[in-house]
Specification:
2 domains; seven-stranded mixed sheet; 14 helices; Aminotrans_3_PPA_site; aminotransferase; pyridoxal phosphate; PyrdxlP-dep_Trfase_small
């Protein structure tokens, strides 16, 4: 029996990442993952943004091991625990208070799509309205409510039924600057004869992680927030992938200076790859009845332990934030040098969620495959997988960034030919 036979024999056809990376992973440390036969891969994927602090960070591993060995409770539904108290205290002290944010913290379930579902549900409950607006090329999750506000047609088709009570509106630069931001939406919301119902909420990603690394301009986000406030529409920011430091600040919306009504978080929250999600809610919107949004795995105590440790280690001051911004600048500069060598290749994204869009829609996938053969994990993004997407651990070193960029440059040359120009 080969080392992958059992997966082909028993696992569903729905699996995806393993098709592009047909190896059996065994160990991981920092920005490196290693297969069972000893092959090392530099990780520019980070578990789709889960491993922001790298793999098996020792300052998170030790408190987790200590907790598990102590006999402390692991599963507790939504009951009070020492671990939850420590996480909530740390989240308040290191994230909310320093940013002047006043949110109630809801534990909706273990994944990002759980957070999105709870946000949509609460927005409809509080406003009494049904309709939700989302954006072209958005991705918000794979359950029915989250799918209804997702743009990708292949993922939407998997629902098997109509996805209703939502509409899509153009994301920033969808018309390449040819149309004034929100001109149409502002007009129809003000016109009682437009036939367009006032929505309960608008949900947005500041960087569309799965939709092609489209990054909204700060002024566009501010205009969106102003529009929502003027019409009493709730603004939901989905920070599942772009949050927890990925764009250079803890929340991706900080640069724009806006304060969403509801924020969705997951992926990197536990800091260790343990399932965990939060929905941050403006206090006056916290109108749930007890148990009205329920779930067995809303609070995983080992995730509280590593999550609190990560907050203390990385967010007690601005040292880590500055380091991430430095690495992000190095990553973007390197990607820009690669893109400059190929006609009409464009660097997209923000922070450590950055990539290159190629005019040949098959190029990014071929480059990712060539990079894998050279020892780099990197994926694609966009409706046609036309963007090579890099999102390494935020703890990556400058040397590892350079090494990964070198692999991408070699892979691009292998697929597209030598670059036309070579940056100095």
């Amino acid at each position: 029996m080969s080392q992958t036979t059992i997966f082909d024999e028993l696992e569903s056809q729905v699996r995806s990442y393993c098709r592009n990376w047909p190896v059996v992973l065994a160990t991981a440390e920092g920005s490196t993952v290693t297969t069972e036969d000893g092959r090392e891969y530099l990780d520019f994927f980070a578990g789709a943004g889960v491993m922001n602090y790298g793999h098996n960070h020792p300052e998170l591993t030790e408190p987790l091991i200590d907790y598990l060995r102590s006999g402390a409770i692991v599963h507790s539904l939504d009951m009070h625990t020492v671990a939850k108290r420590e996480f909530l205290t740390s989240f308040r002290d290191y994230v909310l208070k320093p940013r002047g944010l006043d949110y109630k913290v809801m534990f909706p379930g273990p994944t990002g799509t759980n957070s999105v579902e709870s946000a949509l549900k609460l927005a409809r409950k509080v406003t009494g309205r049904q309709h939700i607006l989302s954006f072209t090329n958005a991705f918000h999750g794979m359950t029915l409510g989250a799918l209804s506000v997702t743009g990708n047609s292949m993922k939407r088709q998997g629902a098997g039924l109509p996805l209703t009570n939502t509409s899509k509106i153009p994301y920033d630069n969808y018309f390449s600057g040819a149309v004034e931001d929100f001109l149409w939406l502002e007009r129809v919301l003000e016109d009682s004869g437009s036939g367009v119902d006032l929505p309960a909420a608008i949900i947005v990603e500041t960087v569309q992680g799965e939709g092609g690394l489209n990054a909204a301009r700060p002024e566009w986000l501010r205009a969106l927030a102003d529009l929502c406030k003027a019409h009493e529409i709730l603004l939901i920011v989905d920070d599942v992938q772009a949050g927890v430091g990925r764009t250079g600040t803890y929340f991706s919306f900080e640069e724009a200076g806006i304060t969403p009504d509801i924020v969705c978080l997951s992926k990197a929250l536990s800091g260790y790859g343990l399932p965990m999600a939060l929905t941050l809610v403006r206090p006056d919107l916290d109108q749930w009845e007890a148990g009205e949004h329920n779930g067995t795995f809303r609070g995983h105590n080992p995730a509280f332990v590593t999550g609190a440790a990560a907050l203390k280690r990385f967010w007690a001051d601005d040292t880590f934030e500055k380091q991430v911004q430095e690495r992000a600048a190095e990553l973007r500069d390197g990607l820009q040098k690669i893109a400059d060598g190929y006609e009409n290749a464009v660097v997209k994204g923000r922070g450590m969620l950055t990539g290159i869009e190629f005019p040949d829609k098959e190029a990014a996938g071929k480059i990712a495959a060539a990079a894998f053969r050279r020892g780099l994990l990197v994926e694609t993004s966009g409706p046609d997988s036309e963007v090579l997407k890099t999102m390494p651990p935020l703890t990556i070193t400058s040397e590892e960034v350079r090494r990964g960029l070198g692999i991408i440059a070699d892979a691009a040359a292998d697929v597209l030919g030598d670059p036309v120009t070579t940056a100095a």
